[in-house]
Amino acid sequence: MNSHAAGIYSEYPLTLEISGSNTVTGAIGDMKKSGNTNKYYGVSYGIYAAGLVISGEGELDVTGVDVSGSSYGIYSNGDEIVNSGKVLANAGETVNISSNWNFWSVGIYVNGGLTVNDGEVEANAKWATRRSAGVYVAAPPASASAVALMSLHNTAAEMEDKINPEGRVLENTVAMFYSGSQTGGSSGGGSINDGVATPSAVGGGICINGGSLEANGAQGKASGRISAYSNGIYARGEITVNAGAMIEKGGDGSTTSEGIYSPSNITIHGGTVTGIGGSSAEDQNRGIFSNKVLTIADGVVTGTAGSVTADFSEGIGG
Questions:
Q1: 33 Cβ neighbours under 8 A, 6+ residues apart
Q2: Following DSSP, what letter does each residue of 10-34 receive, concatenated?
Q3: Own/partner pairs for 138-142, CB < 8 Å, 24+ apart?
Q4: CB-based burial of residue 159 (10 Å sphere; 0-12 exposed, 13-18 middle, 19+ buried)?
C-alpha cells in the first residue's frame, strides 16, 4: 500500500496567508477501494508540505478523509508556525485491514518544531489502530536539541492592538487538541491516545509562555495482551510553563491514563495548570507526573487522579 493523496501537496516549505473562510479536504487520488472495509487503501493528507507557516486573519478548515490506512489533517515535514488566524485540522478515521499493519490518525503531524504565536488552533483525531493524537511532534531539526519542540506564546500586552476584521479582540492564543477514541490494537503493539505527543528523545519538550492549551487523550481500552495508553499531554522532553492556562485530561477506560506526563522534568513558574487522570484506568492513573523532578515555583496547580481502582493512583507526583 503506497498510495498517498492530499488536498494541498507541496514538496517545498509552504506559506499560507489566510483571509475569509477556507476549506481543504484530502483527496482520494489513485487509491483503490478496499472490498472488506469499503474505504480506500492509502494515506490521506488534508495538507502535506515540507514545512508550513500560517498567518492572516481568516479561517482554515483542513480535513483528512477516512481511509484503510493512515489519515492526517495537516502533515508538515518540517517546522510549522502559526502566527495568526483560526486553524482547524481534522484527521480521518483509519481502518486496520491486516493484523500486522499499524495505522495512525493525527490532526497535526509535525516532523520538526511546532510554534503557535497567536490565533486559535484546534486539532482532532479519530479512531486508529495504532496511534491517535490531536498533535504529534515527531523530531526536531538538528539545531533544536536544546529547545522545546512545541511552544505556545501570548501575553495580554501583546494582544492590545490585535483585532480581527469583525472587531473582536483576540484575548488569548488558544490551542485545543483531542485524540480519537479507540479500542484494542494490532498484534504489533498497543494502541496509544494523546491529545499532544512530543516523543523525541532530543528536544521533545513543551514550553507554554501564555495563552490557553487544552489537550484530551481519548478512551483507549486494552485488548488481550495489548496495552492502551491515554494522555492529555505526553512530552519526552521537559515541560515548562511560564504563564497561561493548561487543562489536560487522560482518557477514560485506558490501562494507563495521565493528564500530564513526562519522563523528564516538569517546571511551573506561573499560570494555571490542571492535570486530570481518566476514570477506570486499570494500571496507572495520574493527574500530573514527572519521572524526574517536578518543580512548582509559582502559579496555581491542580492534579486529580480519576480512578481509585487503578493499581497506582496519584494526583501530583514527581
A1: 39, 40, 41
A2: -SS-EEEEE-SEEEEE---TTPPBP
A3: 138/109, 138/110, 138/111, 138/112, 138/199, 138/200, 139/111, 139/112, 139/200, 139/202, 140/112, 140/113, 140/200, 140/202, 140/203, 140/204, 141/78, 141/79, 141/112, 141/113
A4: middle
**What is the DSSP track for 76-110?**
ESS-EEE-SSEEEEE---B---STT---EEEEEEE
Q: How deeply is 302 buried, as exposed, middle or buried, from its count of CB atoms within 10 A (0-12, 13-18, 19+)?
A: middle
Q: Which three cell numbers stand for residue 212?
A: 490557553
Q: How confident is the model over 16-65, as pLDDT tens digits?
A: 999 999 999 988 766 666 665 556 677 899 999 999 999 999 999 999 98
pTM value?
0.85
| Among 83, 182, 47, CA closest to 126 | 182
Measure the CA–CA gap between 46 and 96, rounded to whole angstroms. 20
Determine the 3-state secondary structure of 272 from DSSP: strand
Torsion over CA of 48, 141, 133 and 302, rounded to 10 degrees?
-140
Q: Which of 266, 213, 195 is nearest to 236 (CA)?
A: 266
Reported as a single tens digit per residue, the pLDDT across 165-220 is: 333 233 345 666 656 544 333 222 337 778 888 887 666 788 888 778 888 776 65
Gap between the Cα atoms of 144 and 125, Å rounded: 27
